[in-house]
Specification:
mainly alpha; binds adenosine-5'-triphosphate; 3-stranded parallel beta sheet; 13 helices; binds L-tryptophanamide
Length: 328
């Protein structure tokens, strides 16, 4: 029997952080044995926010190197740049003609990002979810492992697929999401009411995968907690619950076990231990990343080969879509 297909992606908007890892990439590595997987660096999506060209290029390569360092074997998985496969943009255009303005208007990410950047509310930011739907539907994807913030975009991709299929027959597989039970929403360390995000201007909110051990410890020590000095997992304790979640993810201890581990601890000791656990868990991945990013020839080879593979895999769907809608 043919393996089912996984597609997912990350933007090249900055350095990856532990939210990207614990919410998404870690599950990609876990699922990859059972599925045929495509993991994309969605560089076209990154253009919805103004980017310095040299930095974007560097970040895109860095994200791809992290994919490999975090356990995705490029021989088994197709790891590529979205912009190298023009079918993404082509399908996105076609699907935009099957997506309603009202649907896009409801997207909370659009509202959040527009509020953050009033000077550049561009059309790409608005149609961002259509390009994401195209990414997914292009490969007849069965499963999309993402963090919790992508739920609404995923639902839109399903709606568009179903709408298209209703008109033209079974052209697209309607994808399912995979959102992990723990780690799907890692919060900002200084403001645990909002999610950790690459493009946060406060660097103390974010633990980057490339942060040195010293910096990681320093950031955890500064993490916002609360005033009652009680370590338990609860909605009214967002800072503490976030740290427990991170600890649970990197150590493999359940939330209950994690709480028990700190039964005798004060906040200072707790934050230090969480920081140390993260440093230890990241160390082997960081070493691998440092090795990979220096190996230009190897990365270039992976990038070129994967682009060819992805183009080849996208071609049958594009052909069916063109025929279905009546393009000559
Ligand atoms: P940006 O700040 O530019 O929007 P981002 O940090 O939100 O970037 P993305 O590239 O948009 O990162 O997301 C890549 C993947 O990581 C997605 O699957 C997303 O759901 C997941 N993800 C992002 N932030 C978090 C988080 N704080 N916790 C868990 N998963 C996350
Ligand atoms: N919008 C996603 C990134 C993304 C994606 C995708 C994820 C673009 N295309 C397709 C899964 C499948 C984000 O994390 N901001």
């Amino acid at each position: 029997m043919q393996k089912k297909i996984i597609f997912s992606g990350m933007q090249a908007t900055g350095n990856l952080h532990i939210g990207n890892w614990l919410g998404a990439a870690r599950n990609w590595a876990r699922l990859c044995a059972e599925y045929t997987c495509l993991y994309c660096v969605v560089d076209l999506h990154s253009l919805t926010v103004r980017q310095d060209p040299a930095t974007l290029r560097e970040n895109a390569r860095s994200v791809l190197a992290w994919y490999i360092a975090l356990g995705l074997d490029p021989k088994e998985n197709t790891l590529y740049f979205q912009s190298h496969v023009s079918a993404h943009a082509e399908l996105s255009w076609i699907l935009s003609c099957y997506t309603y303005m009202g649907e896009l208007n409801r997207m909370t990410q659009f509202k959040d990002k527009s509020a953050k950047n009033e000077a550049n509310i561009n059309a790409g930011l608005f149609t961002y979810p259509v390009l994401m739907a195209a990414d997914i539907l292009l490969f007849q994807t069965d499963l999309v492992p993402v963090g919790d913030d992508q739920r609404q975009h995923l639902e839109l991709a399903r709606d568009v697929a179903q709408r298209f299929n209703q008109v033209y027959g079974e052209i697209f597989v309607v994808p399912e999401g995979y959102i992990p039970p723990v780690g799907a929403r890692i919060m900002a360390l200084q403001s645990p009411g909002k999610k950790m995000s690459k493009s946060d201007e406060n660097l103390y909110n974010c633990i980057f995968l490339s942060d040195s051990p010293d910096v990681i410890i320093k950031k955890f020590k500064r993490a916002v907690t609360d005033s009652d000095n009680e370590i338990r997992f609860s909605e009214d304790k967002p800072g503490i619950s976030n740290l427990l979640t991170v600890y649970s993810c990197v150590t493999g201890r359940s939330i209950d076990q994690s709480v028990a581990d700190f039964a005798q601890s004060g906040y200072g000791d707790f934050k230090l231990k969480v920081g140390e656990a993260v440093v230890e868990a990241l160390l082997p991945y960081r070493r691998e990343y440092d090795r990979l990013i220096a190996d230009t020839a190897y990365l270039d080879g992976v990038i070129a080969e994967a682009a060819g593979k992805a183009r080849h895999l996208a071609a049958p769907t594009m052909a069916r879509v063109r025929t279905a809608v009546g393009l000559p």
